């Protein structure tokens, strides 16, 4: 399985059979490693509807026919010409071909009226368990996620201002008992600039393995 960081909070996970695209903000993203016209995917998972997450989701769904996984209020923002949706809500699990996708809470705002932001815990079949928190503050139930799931990779924002910052992300990684932390949602704009090397070193002292990636870089999960 391959994780590829595409810039800001956009990434793909390729199982070898299916490609999952998360929070595809590419057009207007100076960090984007691929253009919205060129990205390939079978699923689009959205944490919430802020423009730096929803981004090009509608255009990509129209072009690819990918299944959109999101809460109903976010799905309501898509073109009426589309129908390949998996609407879900907090606490629910979607049993997909590639594994189980659980939608979990995030502490943020949604960007779609009446909606709530979310994160995803994905247990890949014969693969790792991956938690993507979406935009969120630190919250105590991350400890519960750490108890309930054997989290191999926690994909967490570290930018501060709009989300938790580096120190809270270290606490999050500890709460989650994550084997590895992949940071994102930083350095896209000055207001969320962070020194990722300093974050990595501080996290290491707390026993956490941080894997910083530049836009366009991939790792095997
Ligand atoms: Ni947001
Ligand atoms: Mn954001």
What does this structure look like?
The protein is α/β, with parallel strands linked by helices. The chain has one domain: Ribonuclease Z/Hydroxyacylglutathione hydrolase-like (Metallo-beta-lactamase, Chain A, 4-Layer Sandwich), CATH 3.60.15.10. The protein is built from six helices and 13 strands. The chain has helices spanning 51-54, 57-64, 72-75, 142-148, 166-176, 196-205, and strands at 2-7, 10-14, 19-22, 43-45, 67-70, 85-87, 93-96, 99-105, 118-124, 129-132, 153-157, 180-184, 218-220. The chain has a seven-stranded mixed β-sheet. Strands 7-8-9-10-11-12 form a six-stranded mixed β-sheet, covered by helices on one side. Helix 3 links the parallel strand 5 (67-70) and strand 6 (85-87). It is globular, with a radius of gyration of 16 Å. The mean pLDDT is 98. The structure holds nickel (II) ion (NI) and manganese (II) ion. Nickel (II) ion binds next to loops.
Q: Notable features of this structure?
A:
alpha/beta; Metallo-beta-lactamase, Chain A; 13 strands; binds nickel (II) ion; 221 residues; seven-stranded mixed sheet
């Amino acid at each position: 399985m391959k994780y590829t960081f595409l810039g800001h909070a956009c990434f793909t996970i390729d199982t070898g059979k299916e490609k999952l695209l998360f929070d595809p903000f590419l057009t207007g993203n100076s960090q984007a490693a691929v253009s919205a016209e060129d990205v390939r995917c079978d699923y689009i998972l959205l944490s919430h509807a802020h423009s730096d997450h929803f981004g090009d989701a509608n255009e990509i769904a129209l072009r690819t026919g990918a299944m959109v996984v999101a809460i109903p209020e976010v799905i309501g923002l898509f073109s009426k010409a589309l129908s390949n949706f998996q609407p879900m809500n907090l606490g629910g699990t979607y049993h997909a071909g590639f594994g189980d996708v659980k939608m979990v809470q995030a502490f943020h705002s949604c960007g779609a009226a009446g909606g709530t932001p979310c994160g995803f815990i994905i247990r890949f079949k014969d693969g790792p368990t991956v938690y993507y928190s979406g935009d969120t503050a630190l919250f105590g139930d991350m400890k519960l996620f750490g108890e309930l799931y054997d989290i191999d990779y926690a994909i967490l924002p570290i930018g501060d201002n709009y989300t938790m910052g580096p120190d809270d992300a270290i606490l999050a990684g500890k709460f989650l008992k994550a084997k590895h932390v992949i940071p994102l949602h930083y350095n896209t704009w000055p207001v969320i600039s962070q020194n990722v090397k300093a974050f990595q070193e501080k996290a290491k002292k707390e026993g956490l393995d941080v894997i910083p990636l530049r836009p366009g870089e991939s790792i095997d999960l």
